[in-house]
Specification:
With about 60 residues, the protein is mostly helical. The protein is built from three helices and no strands.
């Protein structure tokens, strides 16, 4: 019997996992946009939260 802290989250696969990761990436970026240091870097890279549409967009971040 496998033991999990949160079985539902720890066993996510495929599209559900990717959707969760995308949602959390967008949340993290929304927090970064509130910090002047990251605001400047994101602006210089031409990236905003609306540019992140999928998990793989993380490669676009500075």
């Amino acid at each position: 019997m496998a033991m999990f802290w949160n079985e539902e989250m720890e066993t996510l696969r495929g599209k559900k996992l990717e959707d969760l990761q995308t949602k959390r990436l967008k949340w993290t970026l929304s927090q970064a946009e509130k910090i002047p240091f990251y605001q400047e870097r994101l602006r210089a890279a031409g990236i905003s939260n609306s540019d992140i549409q999928k998990r793989d967009d993380i490669t676009r971040l500075p």
